[in-house]
Every structure is written in C-alpha cells, then in structure tokens.
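Worked example 2:
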Amino acid sequence: MNDLFSLKGKVAVVTGALGLLGRNHCTALSEAGAKVVVADTNEQKCSDFARDYLENGMGSYLNVTNKDSITELTRNILKKYGQIDVLVNNAAINDMFEDPKVATEQSKFENYPLELWQKSLDVNLTGIFLCSQVIGAQMVKQGAGSIINIASTYGITAPDQSLYKDQEGNQTFYKPPAYSVTKGGVIMLTKFLASYWGHARVRVNTLSPGGVQNAQNDFFIENYSKKTPLGRMANPTDYKGAIVFLASDASAYMTGANLVVDGGWTCW
C-alpha cells in the first residue's frame, strides 16, 4: 500500500505554490517522495520555500497567463530533472475588495467590473489551459502523467450570498460571479483533457476543496460551519492526502473525475 502512494522518483510542478493551499500541496508531494517545483510570481520566495520546507525541490518564477513563461519553466525542469510527472494547476484569483466602503456595491453582479471578470478568466481558466497545453504535451511524450486541476465547491454550487452578511444582517459584499464561473470551467476542462489524453496514459482530475479557515471573522466561520455536515471549515492541511492520492498510482484508474473534499458542504 505504501508503494501505491509513493511519489519517489517523480517530479511534480505546483503553480500558485506560495498560496495557502499551494504551500501545503508542495509539502504533501515532497513528503510522499517527489521532487517539487515551487512555481509562482516571486522567484526568490519560491526558492526560499523550496530550500526551507522541501526535501528535494526548486523554486521558479511562473506567469501562468504567459505561454513563453510556461515553456521556459518546462525547459528548465527538463534540464534539471529530465521529466515532469505531476502538474498541480493551483494558481487562481479570488477577488478581494479591500475597501469595505465600496465592496458591497462593487461586488454586486450589476456593478462587477469587466476588468476583474477578465483577470479571473485569464488566471483561473486560461492559466490552466496554457499550463496543461505545454506541460501536458511533455507528459504525452513521456507516455504518462497526472494533472490535478484545483477547482472549488463554488464550481459545483452557486455561492450562498447570505454567508457574506454581518451580525446585523447587512451584506458586506457579494461573492463575485467570476470565481464560480471559472471554477466550473475548470471542471469541464478536466473532463475534456481526460478524454483527449486518456490514450497517452495522461490522467487529468479535479480536486474541489471546500472553504479553508484563514483568519475570517468568527461570525463567518460559525455560519459556514453550520452549513457543513462535519461542522467546521477545512484546515489548510486537510487536502494533503487528496493531492498525494491523485498524483500517485493509488488513483491509477481515475481520470476525468472531480474529487470533492468539502466536509460535506455540497451534499445538502
């Protein structure tokens, strides 16, 4: 059983690697034995993280919206390691409205800025398209690989906007449309790629996480937890097992699937 989950001898790339979940994806893959490429927009921080927290890895700059950047990263990985076995498409934008005075009005669908919509499309969906196109093509040449696309429960169900009210019942902001739409697109892109590359033994699956506790106010955490059968938000480490499962031979007969790890959020 240990061999099924082992990633010894494998090379894994994680995009958006410096984010809350990205860091945990990296450490999970490393702990399972993989050489991990920490890829994000700050090369120095990526290199520092790889040095300080991973057994064997490297840090690299990556702009997921730029095909040349992805191609250069791929070339550098092949030069160093000779192969790429796992790609975790984790990079994403989750709109944050820093000024509470305008957040409610700006986040309304009727007022939602086109530039924010386009930016989310570029990173959350086109970024996965481009990374899969370049790195997936290398996996096809190798005759095997595992691509893991990170979606969300909001790619399956619409946001409950009542969660974003304060204790007085005032709407503090609305969860914008771009996040849900792009994450839903990620799930469909996964299915397309799984059917397209199945013959080449390149597996493509989605991981859909639930909400992660990360310094939200107590009122939000309590309300979110009430809507979750397990009665709590996720810890950042709750997805480490799922990532290793999807990356390893433990999921060898799994492709085109959406692995939902959400504490039961979507079951009612």
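The chain has one domain: 2-267. Residues 34 and 113 are 41 Å apart (CA to CA).
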